[in-house]
Amino acid sequence: MDGDGDGQSRWCLSQVKGAVDDDVAEADIISAVEFNHSGELLATGDRGGRIVIFQQEQESKNLPQCHAEYNVYSTFQSHEPEFDYLKSLEIEEKINKIRWLPQKNAAHFLLSTNDKTIKLWKISERDKRPEGYNLKEEDGRYRHPSSLTTLRVPVFQPMDLMVEASPRRVYANAHTYHINSISVNSDNETYLSADDLRINLWHLDFTDRSFNIVDIKPANMEELTEVITASEFHPLQCNTFVYGSSKGSVRLCDMRASALCDQHSKLFEEPEDPSTRSFFSEIISSISDVKFSHSGRYMMTRDYLTLKIWDLHMESRPVEIYQVHGYLRSKLCSLYENDCIFDKFECCWRGDDSEVMTGSYNNFFRMFDRDAQRDATLEATWENGSPGCPLKTWRVSAGSRRKRNEIGVDCLDFSRKILYTSWHPQDNIVALATVNNLYIFQEKLN
Amino acid sequence: MGQRDITAFEASMKRKNGIPSVSMCRLEVESAAVKKEVEPGGDGALSSSRYMLGRGVKRKLSTCEDPAQDLPYPQQRQLVLDLCLDKLQSCQRRAEPSLHRSVLLANTLRQIQQEMRQEGETCLPLAPLGPSLPHASTPRHFPDLPPVPLDCPQPLTGALSPSFSLTTTEDEEVQLGGAENETLLPSFAGENDTRSTDSLFGSFEITNSTSYLTDLALDDIFEDIDTSMYDSADISVLPFPAQRSSGVDDGLKSLSSCNSNSSLQLCLSDLNDLDHIMEILVHS
Prior knowledge:
heterodimer, A: four-stranded antiparallel beta sheet, 2 helices, about 0% helix, B: mainly alpha, 12 helices, disordered N terminus
């Protein structure tokens, strides 16, 4: 599909978070990005096990063409590094996934996970505190009861806003392999966690037990040829979930069918095109992300080179296929050599499911308009762009040409990649993480 | 914009050396072709191509196609096989082992092996008799020398399970010479594969042992150590801490099998010398 011809997109850079120099500490590299269900909060996780939550300011009246900005709301250490003594291996504190729970009261809840442990965090605000105790001074010292002459009722007084994050549950020791996905069920009571070989079902209230619902570990590990790469609950049907595999197939399971969902209800797999077969066919078919549409009718899968939209009623082939960076097909051997072929890209839907988006290399990200059947390549950069200024679209050509807004495939920088993306559930705001920074883009409103 | 909006955590995480920083992951396409001609034996060139610092300078290629695609199919396949073995070997050494990656690599390797085996079966009668390509100078010209595997760097015999080193040293037809003539026809027995993948995939489990040592009072571990064994016949069992799984498992197993008081007492009842004890422990 060709990009739009005028070279301008509707998108403009809104904010960049993080240091802008080239030297970034390993611990600061962002590894998860997720808007909450209202879009008011944006959470990021990094390799150091920290979570930073940004909050959208109230809409400001003097900038009608822009949505409000996101500023830091809370920062906390979610996971710590651990050491597995028997295997002599570090268990990384890197945050693999963040998922918000739908908001039920004033507090916000999110699930965060590293390779081994899932935690439920409560983020709550405190903007009042009781003052006027009888037995305590304002500084906390206790007064002797005999010094009291009168009694008073303590009252709440306003204080500076304090945002507290506290771990409410720790769901540990249920996964032998590295956790790659978590997904909250539409019933708001259960969630699933998936590692390379198993998927477990948890109740949010109970940390001492979880149910295994998928187990693809073979009796002989030597027969292992396939692992689970991503999993998600259906947004509306609480009995349905899907999981993607390293062989490029997605299985839909119904928990009503049996306790252990090793038998899939549907298998979504596109037959391989023999003309494009190579040594790397299996590797590039590995599903790196699977996301249901908000409507629940469709499902999107991301593999190394393409985005595929599937109709849940049709298992034989996807209804739409979008080439993310097809020009890399001739470079697979080099990408295999430098390990980029194993990069796992995420993808996301626009709130009304009319567009989808995913990241690429060279800090490019790709937007696909499903209705208009148009796509755009945009670059996440803080150079030569000011907030409010629309982004220019890029074209990637063969060879090493470099023209204005055109770049040759040989000039692409494969160390700059956008793996993690999230789309605001209602507005056209996208957040994505480059290696160094968090970028927030908005669609121009007018 | 541009300033760090959040207070930087001075998280003092110790990182194991060996994770290449992302800024080093650049496309160094030329190295694929260069490496084959320059260093057939070592993995030094392979490592340097992956971890080479390429800051600030983007390399532009004259061709738009991956040079590896220009190679004839057997050479392409050989290149991929070499890379596969190298990556699987380095998997074990990485600080963040990934089962997903290892499974993909193993599948690719298996696919190539099967292909080669099928081809090997069709031309097997020819292979041991001499070079099939006229201008290769093979070790068979010097029948006293064993065939030297082209891509058998020393570390293969170390960290990875023995069968991977077996695959490159046994039953190979190797032709040294120009880069264009390199082919490798490993012919493994089936059990070598299974043993290798078993030990490869078996090491990915996260055990629930992070609290293993915190549950034990440290004193309990050491209370059994008794120096009186060195000057009398009173033997006590020495506990051994958990060790790295590669290579030492056999040693541990054999130690534990003879680690009962009675057998030690029988063996050591006449010995009160530390050196003798160590000698026996090492040889058992």
